[in-house]
Specification:
five-stranded antiparallel β-sheet, 2 helices, Immunoglobulin-like, 3% helix, hydrolase, polysaccharide degradation, hydrolase activity, acting on glycosyl bonds, Ig-like_fold
Length: 676
């Protein structure tokens, strides 16, 4: 038989801490003849029946309800079957809140809270029965009673109660700490206070937050957290008096109201004012300084250092938040700093700023980037007498104005905005595309004084400065009326068109025509098929105007060329050119052979007429195309029987009165294919 579990002082204390949380320190005394158990330790009573009647066979203290007696009696003098055990405890639940009761027993268990049953598993079972109940316990002290009955067989029992600490469930604030007090420690610089308080009774306590406020203020600021019961003050030495209060917080994040205020804790004023943040502007009359008021400052001292000086010199003391230095030399750079001082003599110096007396620079400088350049606009300073402006550009920042960065500022315009301000504009057409450029401006007044530079702006023209890659697979096929060029579509995503050029040895390339993007073929013509060797270039151009360009006989970027020998459709025989006439041919309306006739004056009075001949390649002969001779005074002729899509060669004959003929020079005429 297993005896009833014995609970030592140390074990009882450890179990109480495990039950109530690490922030509690309640200890339970060992059981005695007149058994008294200190909360939260249970008083346990053993009965030799399951009705809990008569005098208990044994009474002791139990830190936790967790026993397994098996099939044996729970204690000497008790039967192994049909016995009962009762645990009772009255404890302070603090602010109360949501709890979980967990019970497990073989055989029966009943749990009472303030006499009201909360768990009822009361029957003889052959295995352990379990039950969990969630409930809300009110604040303050409450009594728990747990009755256990073992009828037959094995006996075991377990019960625990724990707070529910989820933030979504627990909305109950802890009780405010009590017993708050403060003690002072002497220090050489400022007093230090130690705030202390009594332990909180919350079972789910997480710790304490200490707050402070300045005397006369209602705004509290967190000074620190602790899981102990004391806190040493660490406030800044500002000359203010501070009050403290303590608030408890639980594991769900709920925070209690504050304890009674403790204090005041005085401090000496050893905190300087906030550091002034100074801005400087050089105008024609002075260097103007300004700053926001520093917290705690009573006066401000202004210091200046010239470019050729090694020390700062105080030039003014003021209670204002601005100062104009009219004694600074015009055009000379100066450095300034402002020192804020409070009534206790604490000081704080600003950062050093620079300024130079100058005329007001251009204002509100902006830049836009249309495709053709960078358009810069600015506002002319009001009341100014401006002689001119200069604009400077650089790829690096900051811009250093010099002759190398001066912009050829064109398209200058002047306008007035709705507020009556004068707006000026110029366009920089020379900035490279796709590159970030930085700009500054300065102004020259009518007295020749030049301003400092304006604020710097950055602008990037859209696009790039790189020509598209050369075309690929360029071919040339000779035709009877010209040359057909063909190539692969360019891979450039910003392609605009192609340019077609013709090159003849010893000459610069000649531009022929443009071909729109999306088209990758071009016919050079109409052009006489006379067997010449020709070289052609196809050059892609993008929407930004980038393309390879000829420089003499060379190109400034790689290009693609193709060389072809034209078809040779010239006559194989040429009559002797003895006629007093010459022929100059052309293509009329793209399909008819037209020609101009120029003859000596004698033809009009001495010849019988003029005949027109066309070379016939099929018969290798000249075929007359005029049924009857033209009048000897004729100056032109159109051959409407000229075949389409080929090169035709013509000559004239002057018919004498006796019918004999003399022949002119030969000239070609080119016709396009039908429908071209």
């Amino acid at each position: 038989m297993n005896p009833a579990r014995r609970t030592t002082q140390a074990a009882t204390t450890a179990l109480v801490l495990a039950t109530a949380g690490a922030l509690l320190s309640t200890a339970a005394p060992a059981a005695s003849a007149a058994t008294t158990c200190t909360s939260p330790v249970y008083k346990r009573q053993f009965f030799a029946n399951t009705a809990f009647s008569g005098t208990p066979k044994r009474t002791d203290c139990d830190a936790a309800i967790d026993s397994n007696w098996g099939a044996k009696a729970p204690a000497t003098g008790l039967p192994k079957d049909n016995f009962g055990v009762r645990w009772t405890v009255t404890r302070d639940f603090g602010s109360g809140g949501p709890f979980t009761f967990t019970a497990a027993a073989q055989d029966g268990i009943r749990v009472y809270l303030d006499g009201k049953i909360k768990v009822n598993v009361w029957k003889n079972v052959t295995s352990t029965a379990k039950k969990t109940v969630n409930l809300t316990i009110p604040s303050g002290k409450h009594t728990l009673r747990i009755d256990y009955a073992s009828w037959t067989g094995n006996a075991n029992v377990n019960f625990a109660y724990t707070p529910r600490t989820s933030a979504s469930v627990d909305k109950v604030k802890p009780l405010a700490p009590t017993g708050a007090d403060i003690n002072f420690l002497p220090q050489t610089t400022h007093p230090v206070g130690i705030v202390s308080w009594a332990p909180n009774k919350e079972m789910d306590l997480a710790g304490y937050r200490v707050y402070r406020r300045i005397e006369g203020s209602s705004s509290w600021t967190e000074a620190g957290t602790t899981t102990g019961l004391r806190f040493t003050t660490n406030q800044r030495s500002t000359g203010d008096d501070y009050y403290y209060e303590v608030r408890a917080y639980d594991r769900a994040g709920n925070e209690s109201a504050g304890s009674a205020d403790q204090g005041p804790v005085p401090t000496y004023d050893m905190t300087p004012p906030t550091r002034p943040v100074v801005t400087a502007e050089g105008v024609e009359a002075a260097n103007n300084l300004s700053w926001a008021a520093s917290e705690g400052a009573k006066t401000y001292r202004v210091f200046r250092q010239a470019e050729d000086e090694h020390l700062f010199t105080e030039i003014a003391e003021t209670t204002a938040t601005s100062y104009s230095d009219t004694s600074a030399r015009y055009g000379n750079p100066y450095e300034y700093k402002v020192v804020a001082a409070d009534a206790a003599g604490n000081t704080a110096a600003s950062a050093v700023v620079s300024s130079t007396r100058s005329i007001t620079p251009p204002l509100n400088v902006t830049a836009t980037t249309p495709s053709w350049g960078v358009v810069i606009t600015w506002t002319e300073p009001p009341g100014s007498s401006t002689a001119g402006y200069s604009v400077y550009r650089s790829r690096t920042s900051p811009v250093v104005p010099d002759s190398d960065t001066l912009v050829d500022c064109r398209d200058r315009k002047v306008s007035t905005d709705a507020a009556g301000n004068t707006i000026r504009r110029c366009t920089d057409y020379d900035a490279d595309r796709g590159v970030a450029h930085h700009y500054v401006l300065n102004r020259v007044n009518t007295e020749g004084r030049r301003s400092v530079e304006s604020s710097e702006i950055t602008a990037t023209r859209p696009g790039d400065e790189k020509a598209p890659p050369p075309v690929t697979n360029l071919t040339a096929d000779p035709l009877e009326y010209g040359v057909e060029l063909d190539w692969d579509d360019s891979t450039a995503t910003d392609l605009d068109h192609y340019e077609v050029w013709e090159y003849r040895s010893g000459y610069s390339p000649d531009f022929l025509d443009e071909v729109p993007a999306g088209t990758s073929e071009f016919v050079v013509g109409p052009e006489a098929a006379n067997g010449e060797e020709k070289t052609y270039f196809v050059v892609p151009a993008d929407i930004w105007g980038n393309y390879a360009q000829p420089t003499g006989s060379y190109w400034d970027s790689p290009v693609t060329s193709v060389t072809v020998t034209e078809l040779d459709l010239r006559p194989t025989t040429l009559p002797e050119d003895t006629a007093p006439c010459s022929v100059l041919t052309y293509t009329a309306l793209g399909y008819a052979g037209g020609m101009y006739i120029e003859c000596a004056d004698s033809v009009a009075t001495e010849a019988a007429g003029i005949n027109v001949y066309r070379w016939d390649r099929a018969t290798s002969t000249y075929v007359r195309v005029t049924d009857i001779p033209l009048a000897p005074t004729a100056t032109s002729y159109t051959d409407r029987t000229m075949p389409a899509g080929t090169t035709v060669y013509y000559l004239l004959s002057v018919v004498a009165p006796d019918g004999s003929e003399t022949f002119s020079n030969v000239d070609s005429s080119v016709s396009l294919p039908s429908g071209a």
